[in-house]
Each structure stands twice: as structure tokens, then as C-alpha cells.
């Protein structure tokens, strides 16, 4: 996960039939397009197939100028393309079974050391857990020593990190009940939740630089997802979640998509819409918004809008990279599907 505005960072094997949610309200209900079961299945199948081919070929895309998906040479700081953790989690959430070769490719290429940032560690924890490794006993490439990446993340100071990084960290340490907080931890899930809430702006959204003028749906969605995962049972967190979801509802464009504003122009896109779909899928009382209408003048549901970006080939229209585009769309599809079964795409015990 990442901030889309700055870097566009921020199977269908076993695919269950997805029910079509009715519009949440009667606001122009007759003119609101929702994603039918058939439409969902066709689009999910296409993007899932495209992602599988990317993984097999170890490429960030299947046409045009692409580079390796996992490569220490191409990405000396991390060993993987931006967005790789969402990409792997999306495949996992849709039922993909990673081969031994694919798992080893991830493990041998990831760059993890004392210079690794909290974001690097959070992404590694999520990505490794998705493909079946234990981040608490992970053997670094070229070494026989097992390291505990969860403990390493807990020992990072989070107060000066951006909301996006704080959200990433909270999601990462909340992925498994087996992830243990060490005695020397610099934060807890509760304290990190509190820190994220403190950055909520007066309009109830969150911003990558913690200013009201820069509040956006991507950062807000990330904060909502992380607070829901942190499960801090306080009135402050519960209120922040409710008001944050309200902001996200109001931030929808008339066509059901989400995006950001650049030079006064609204830029709807698949990634921002996918983040909103994931955020709405974190709570059962907001799941209805994924494929429903909730705003005056809305012409399509967020799910319908997001899936409209999926090309016939399975690639994503307008994506800065298909790792980011396909990865987040698949993750959103998986989050919605699993939420209907009262599960979370981020729970990998």
C-alpha cells in the first residue's frame, strides 16, 4: 500500500459467485449501474489471469516497456517493484497457490537489512506472509540466520512516519494472531491506532502530509483499513472510523469512482477506487456501499466503476504500472468477496 497521488503507490480458480448488492438508497436508483454477478466474474477472471501471467514471467506488465517484478538489480533498495505486497495479497485472496519457484524468487530477491524502512518491513511482512513464509522466522538470502521481521518493525519509531506508513505498519502487524509484540517494542497496535486518529483532519479525512488541504481518498481509505485491522476498542477509534467512512462516501465522484485532484482537475482512477472498495469491505455495515448507491447523482457503484478500468486482456486502463493497477484491483476484488463470507483478505493466520 502506498500513496497514489505521489507515486501511484499508495483464482479465478475456486472463484465464488459474487452476489449483486442492491442500491443502498433510493437515490436515482433506476439510473445507477451496479456490477452484476456475470460482469464481476468476467472482469475478475481477466485481471486474475493477467496477474498470474505477470508472476510466471516475473514482469511488471505483459506489453510495452516492462521490467522485472522481483529483482535485486532492478530495485537495489527493496528487491521488488512498488506495490508487490498488494499484488501478492490480491492473488492469495483470490485463491492462487504459489509454486515453489515463485515463492523462492520472492524470498531470494527481497532486500532487507538495518537500512530497511518501516514501509519496507511492512511490505515484506505482508508479501512473505501471502506466499507462505513466516516473517517471524525468515532466512535472508545469502544467510543461514533467521530474522524476525515483525519484531524489527515493532522496534521502529513511528511518530514521524507518514499516515500511509503508519497504516501499512498497523495492517502488517495485525495480519496474524501469531505475530507477537516484543518487549522492546516502540509501539503497540493500540498506540499506533491512536497516532493515526490524531492525524485525522477537521473534514474527517486523512492526508499524506497531515494538512487539511491535502486530504484525499487514498490516504483516508488506508487509515480506515488500518484502524479496522488494529481493532482498538475505544470510543475515539470507533468515532474516527465512522466519520472517516462518511468522508469516503462523500468523496465518491458521480460515476462511482474515486481519485485525486491535480491542478484543479479531478483524476478518477482504478487504484483510488480499489482503495475505497477495500475500505468499505472492512466493516459489514459499510459493505453495502461497494456495489450500491449512496450519493445524490451517483450513476454507478464503486465496484462497477473500478471494474470498468479492467481491459479485455486483464490489464488496467491508465495504470502507472500494472503491478500497482492489477495488484490493487485484485486485492479489492478479494477483499469484497471475502467480506461477503465474513472474512478479511488481510487475515492470514
Describe what you observe in this structure.
It is a single chain. By secondary structure, the protein is mainly alpha-helical. It has a single domain, classed as Glycosyltransferase. Helix content is 44%, strand content 4%. The chain has helices at residues 4-7, 37-57, 84-93, 100-109, 118-131, 149-154, 163-173, 189-198, 217-230, 235-250, 270-280, 302-307, 322-340; strands spanning 138-139, 146-147, 258-262, 265-269. Strands 1-2 form a two-stranded antiparallel ribbon. A two-stranded antiparallel sheet has the order 3-4. Strand 1 and strand 2 (146-147) form a beta hairpin. Helix 5 (118-131) runs parallel beside helix 7 (163-173), helix 9 (217-230) runs antiparallel to helix 10 (235-250) and helix 9 (217-230) packs parallel to helix 11. The chain is globular.
Distinctive features:
349 residues, mainly alpha, Glycosyltransferase, two-stranded antiparallel sheet, 13 helices
In short:
This protein has 349 residues and is mainly alpha-helical. The chain has 13 helices and 4 strands. β1 (138-139) and β2 (146-147) form a beta hairpin.
- N-to-C CA distance: 20 Å
- State the CATH class: Mainly Alpha
Q: How large is the count of helical segments?
A: 13
Task: Give the neighbour order of strands across the main sheet.
Answer: 1-2
The ordered H/E elements are HHHHHEEHHHHHEEHHH
Averaged pLDDT: 91
CATH architecture: Alpha/alpha barrel
What is the beta-strand fraction? under 5%
Total count of domains: 1
Q: Describe the main β-sheet briefly.
A: 2 strands, antiparallel
In terms of topology, how is this protein built?
Elements lengths: L3 H4 L29 H21 L26 H10 L6 H10 L8 H14 L6 E2 L6 E2 L1 H6 L8 H11 L15 H10 L18 H14 L4 H16 L7 E5 L2 E5 H11 L21 H6 L14 H19 L9
Antiparallel strand pairs: 1-2, 3-4
Helix pairs in contact: 2-13, 3-5, 3-13, 5-7, 7-8, 7-9, 8-9, 9-10, 9-11, 11-13
Protein name: Fucose-binding lectin II
Keywords: Signal
Amino acid at each position: 500500500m502506498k500513496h497514489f497521488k505521489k507515486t501511484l503507490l499508495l483464482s479465478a480458480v475456486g472463484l465464488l459467485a459474487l452476489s449483486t448488492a442492491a442500491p443502498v438508497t433510493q437515490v436515482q436508483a433506476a439510473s445507477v449501474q451496479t456490477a452484476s454477478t456475470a460482469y464481476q466474474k468476467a472482469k475478475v477472471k481477466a485481471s486474475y489471469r493477467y496477474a498470474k501471467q505477470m508472476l510466471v514471467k516475473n514482469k511488471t506488465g505483459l506489453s510495452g516497456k516492462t521490467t522485472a517484478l522481483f529483482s535485486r538489480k532492478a530495485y537495489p533498495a527493496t528487491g521488488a517493484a512498488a506495490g508487490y505486497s498488494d499484488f501478492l495479497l490480491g492473488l492469495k485472496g483470490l485463491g492462487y497457490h504459489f509454486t515453489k519457484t515463485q515463492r523462492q524468487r520472492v524470498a531470494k530477491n527481497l532486500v532487507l537489512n538495518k537500512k530497511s524502512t518501516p514501509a519496507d518491513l511492512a511490505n515484506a511482512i505482508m508479501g512473505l506472509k501471502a506466499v507462505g513464509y513466516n516473517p517471524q522466522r525468515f532466512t535472508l538470502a545469502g544467510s543461514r540466520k533467521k530474522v524476525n521481521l515483525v519484531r524489527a518493525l515493532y522496534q521502529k519509531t513511528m511518530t514521524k512516519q507518514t499516515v500511509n506508513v503508519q497504516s501499512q505498519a498497523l495492517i502488517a502487524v495485525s495480519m496474524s494472531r501469531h505475530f507477537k509484540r516484543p518487549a522492546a517494542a516502540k509501539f503497540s497496535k493500540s498506540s499506533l491506532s491512536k497516532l493515526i486518529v490524531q492525524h485525522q483532519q477537521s473534514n474527517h479525512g486523512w492526508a499524506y502530509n497531515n494538512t487539511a488541504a491535502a486530504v484525499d481518498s487514498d490516504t483516508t481509505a488506508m487509515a480506515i483499513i488500518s484502524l479496522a485491522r488494529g481493532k482498538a476498542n475505544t470510543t475515539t477509534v470507533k468515532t474516527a472510523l465512522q466519520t472517516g467512512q462518511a468522508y469516503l462516501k462523500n468523496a465518491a465522484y458521480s460515476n462511482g469512482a474515486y481519485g485525486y485532484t491535480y491542478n484543479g482537475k479531478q483524476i478518477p482512477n482504478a487504484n483510488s477506487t480499489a482503495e475505497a472498495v477495500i475500505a468499505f469491505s472492512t466493516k459489514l455495515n459499510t459493505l453495502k456501499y461497494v456495489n450500491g448507491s449512496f450519493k445524490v447523482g451517483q450513476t454507478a457503484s464503486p465496484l462497477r466503476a473500478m471494474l470498468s478500468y479492467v481491459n479485455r486482456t486483464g490489464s488496467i486502463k491508465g495504470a502507472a504500472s500494472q503491478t500497482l493497477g492489477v495488484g490493487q484491483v485484485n486485492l479489492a476484488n478479494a477483499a469484497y468477496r471475502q467480506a461477503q463470507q465474513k472474512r478479511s483478505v488481510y487475515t492470514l493466520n
